[in-house]
Amino acid sequence: MLADAARQVATGAPASAAQWLTVALSLLPSDQAERRLALLGPLADVQASAGALADVHGTLLQITTALPPGSGPAWSQAVAALAGVELALGRHSGARRRLELALEAIPDRSSPHAVPLLVALAMDVAYQGDFKRGSAACVRALEAAQAGDPALGALARTVHALMLELQGVGRIEAAEAGIERAAKEFESLTDEQVAGQLDLPYYLGLAETLLERFAGAARHLDRGVTVGLAAGNSQFIASTRSFLAYSLLYLGRVEEALSVAGEAVETCRLLRVPAVSAWTLAVAATAWSVVDAREALGLGEEALAVLGDVDDSMMADTTHGHFAVVCANAGAHERCIEHMLLAGAPSFERFGEPGRRCVWTEALVRSTLAVGRRDEAREWAAVGEQFADGLGLEMAESAVRRARALVLLADGEADSAAELALHAARAAAGRGARIEAARSRIVAGRALGAAGDRTRAVEELRAARADMADAGARRLQQEAARELRALGAAAPAPVARRVGDAGTTQLSQREREVANLVAAGNSNPEIAEALYLSPKTVEGHMRRIFEKLKVTSRTQVAATVAREESRQA
Q: Which pLDDT tens digit goes with each residue over 118-128?
C-alpha cells in the first residue's frame, strides 16, 4: 500500500514518496532481497527528485551492495549514479576508486553496460585536470555504446567532444565536429529517452557553451530543464540551469540569465550540495556583475564560503577564477589578483576550459593596470596570447585582443589600441556574444577618444550603451555613459520614475509571487516557508523588488500591488 501510494505522488511530492518508501522498506523482513531492491530503485529516484543527494548516496550504496558486481545494466547504472552523486558532493577520490573497481568487475569491457561507468570516470578524472585519460575513457565508451541505447551513445559522444575541447589547441575542430553530431543525436531523441539520461542535455550544453555555441547550448539546456521538471527529477536541474544562465548571459539576455541563475541558486541553497552550490553561485555572481556589483560580490562571497566542503579540484579553481572576474568588474582589483592566483595563475594548470583562461587573463590585465602595475599587465597580456594562439575560439581570442588593447592604450598607443579593440568587438559579435562585444566597444571608444577621433569614439560608446540598455546590463551601460561624459558628450540618465510608478510588470514570476505575499502581510520567514525558499533568497528578492518598483518599504510594495490589481479589475 505504501509503495503504491508513493508511486502515485512521486512526481508532485517526492519527499512524501521517499518517506513512505522508507517506511515500506522498514516493514520488509531482511530476507526479502528482491522486494527490497524493487523499492530501493524508486526510493533513489524520489530522493533525487527531492534533491536529497546525501540520502540518494545511501540508497544507491545499498543497491550496489545488494546486486552482484558486473551483473548487468541495473548494477552499472547504479554504480555510475553513485559515483555521480559523490562528484556532486565533492568526494572525488572515492568516486574514482569505485568506478575503477566496477570496470574491473565487468567481464566484457565492450559491453554497453560499461558506458555509464566510463563516462562517469571520464568526468571524474577531468575534474582533476587529466583530460587525456578522460578522452581515452570516452573512446572506450563510444565503442561500447554502438550496440546500446541511443541516448547512451549520444552521451558518450558528447563527453568525448568535451574532453577534446578541454585539451585545447589542436583539438577544437575535432570537438566541434563531435558536438555537432551529438547535438543531432540528442535532437532525435524523444523526451522519454532524454528523461532517462538527464545528464546528457547538461553535458551537451556544457560542451556547447565552452565551444562558444551559445544559442544551441541555450536551446538544449532549456530542454533538459523542461524534461527534468516534467519527470520530477531535480538531480541535474541546478547544474543545467547554471549553464543555461551562462549561455543566456553571453547572448545578452541578461534578465533571463538572472532569473534562471536565481532559480538554480535557490535549489542549491536548500539542497546544500557544496560542489554544485559553489559553481552555481559563481555563475549567478558573474551574471550579476554586469548589473549590480554589490549583489555580485555577495553571491561570490557565498560561493567561496561553501568551498571548504569540496575536495581540492578544478571546481575550487573555477570558483576562485569566476570570483576574481567579478572582483575585476566591481573594481576590487587587488582581490581579483589574489583570487586568480588561488585559481592557479599563471598556468591555470588544472583548469580545463582553454577559452576561459583567456577571459581570466583579460581580467588580470584590467586589474594590474588599475593598480599601476603596467609591466605585470604586459606579462599577463602575453600569457593570454599564448593561451589563444591556435585555439580557434573567437570569443576567447577577442578577450585577449581587448587585453592587449588595454595595455597599448596605457602605453599611449591609442590608434593601435582602437583598431585591436574594434577587431575584438567584431569577433565577439560574430559568436552572438553581445556582452563581450560591448566590453570591447567601450575600450575602443576610450582609445578612439585618446587618439583624437571624438566622433567615432562617441559613436562606438553610444552603440555599446544602447545595446547594453537593451540587454539589461545596467553596470556596463553606466560604464559607457561615464566614458561619454568624459568626452563631453551627452549621456543623460534614464528618466527616474516616481515611487511605485514602475508597476509589477517588470518583476520576474518569482518576484511577483514574493510581492503578492508581502501585500498579503507575510513576513520574510513566512514567505520563505510558503514558497520553499531560503530566507536569504527571499531577502535578495526583496532588494530587487524595491529597486525595480522604486520603493523603500513593504507598505509601498503592497500599495503598488493593490494599484495593479485595481487596474486589472
A: 888 888 887 77
Give the cell for residue 311: 575536495
Pairwise CA distance, residues 205 & 218, whole Å: 7
In angstroms, the CA 416 to CA 104 distance is: 59
The separation between CA 32 and the C-alpha centre of its own chain, rounded to angstroms, equals 43
For the chain, list residues with pLDDT below 50.
495-501
What's CA 85's distance to the chain center, in Å? 18
User: Among candidates 303, 295, 305, which has minimal Cα distance to 321?
Assistant: 303
Count of CB atoms situated within 10 Å of the CB of 249: 28
Phi and psi at 266, nearest 5°, equal -60, -45
DSSP 561: H
Q: Is 457 exposed, middle or buried (0-12, 13-18, 19+ CB in 10 A)?
A: buried
Coil, strand or helix at 388? helix
What residue ranges define each of the domains in the chain, with the CATH number in brackets? 356-486 (1.25.40.10), 509-568 (1.10.10.10)
The span from the CA of 310 to the CA of 313, in Å, is: 8
Output the pLDDT for position 12: 64
3-state secondary structure 203-267: HHHHHHHHCCCHHHHHHHHHHHHHHHHHHCCCCCHHHHHHHHHHHHHHCCCHHHHHHHHHHHHHH
Cα gap 146→151, rounded to integer Å: 11
Q: What are phi and psi of 351, to 5 degrees?
A: -85, 120
Q: Can you tell me the distance from the alpha carbon of 438 to that of 250, in angstroms, rounded to the nearest whole number?
A: 11
> What is the predicted pLDDT for the residue at 235?
66
Give phi and psi for 451, each to the nearest 5.
-80, -5
User: C-alpha grid cell for residue 512?
Assistant: 511577483
pLDDT reported for residue 83: 83
C-alpha cell at 402: 581587448
**pLDDT tens readout for residues 533-551:** 777 778 878 888 887 888 7
DSSP state of 68: P
pLDDT at 11 (0 to 100): 64
Amino acid present at 235:
Q
The pLDDT of residue 146 is 76
* Bond from prior residue into 354 cis (ω within 30 degrees of 0): no
What is d(CA 319, CA 331) in angstroms, rounded to the nearest whole number?
A: 18
